[in-house]
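Bug #77: duplicate submission created two jobs. Keeping one. Sequence:
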Amino acid sequence: MSNVRITIVLLFISLLLPQISFSKTDFLPGYILNLQNDTIRGLIEYEAWDTNPEDIGFKQSEMRSTQYYAPKDIAGFGVMNQLYVSAIVQKEMSPFKDSELEKNPALQLVSDTVFLQTLFGGEKPLYYLKEWDEREQFYIKVDTAYSLLLHKIYVEYVNNVRKDFHNMRFLRQLSQYFWDEPTLLKEIADTYYSRSSLENLFNRYLKLPNKKPVYQNQDSKVGVVYGVLAGVSVTMVNVETDYVKAGFGPSTNFTGGFSVDLAMAGKLKNWSFYNELIYSSYKSTNYAGDYFLDNWASFDFKYLRMNNMIRIRPSWFFLNVGMSSGYAIHAKSSIFVDTRKMEIGVVVGAGIKYKNYSLEVREDIGDGMSPYINISSVTNRFQILLGYSF
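Kept job's structure:
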């Protein structure tokens, strides 16, 4: 019966999560820059873009109608701590997928007007363009022009063996861009044409002496949030054999521990991998009748538990679902000669969050302490947890 219950809970959560994750409000506070660079504040139709938007929806208030702007219509916009600028740029359009690579190292450049995402601001800005075909291109600003960092992968056949080569002109561009920082020459030589590698280079530049803090985009980062939590756990133990089924408890005890929340980014920004190291216990004595070794069933267990969960947090509330692994640091029961040290379970929970504080109601269903094949011992923990994140 417990397996059926676990399956139902997991099925319910799997159906519910996608609905909640896409039910969030689309319009978020932001601003646009008109062609005279005046800031107009309002609401932007935010879609957690994985690729640079081709246009954006904007309205000055909830009651106003939505207007859509292409890159040629405005100078830029900002929303969710992300900055975009409108720019006339060159794009490299050579085939870039492995099965389509050309033998020709020459670049195929075309002009376009696009929204570039700002990765770094300041004196040495860096911009990013990702389009529908997953092609990624990067830009620097020289004087008032947005210059494409030039790169192309092509193939050649040597003795009928295919080899991939890279047109690496962007390295010379970066050397000229950072002409005043010769200490970066080694880092530039080791830089790849990828977002993470270029961001590492620009971060290294900003760590040099006398560099002012600048805007830095964070949407590709996996954020790490540490926390503590404490609360109350109410535990029931359900023991079932071929001839008897009995429930013991409830046992109300303190529970608490530490958490690490690994928040995702981009389209997965509402999801995170939430992990806990938590202490829990239960202790109770109940009349068991004549079916067990002792007429009075006593339980005295203390666990260190590792909970690994997926958390969805689309708004001020959140949901958790995952697995629980508990190790008994103290295990004693009058109805079992031996006890199992490891307990595996399923965890589901729901809560609310306000600033750094959270409140969650949770259920943990575990396989208990029985080491015997013909005796099951399912534990049900109902917990109320107060958390604080740093």
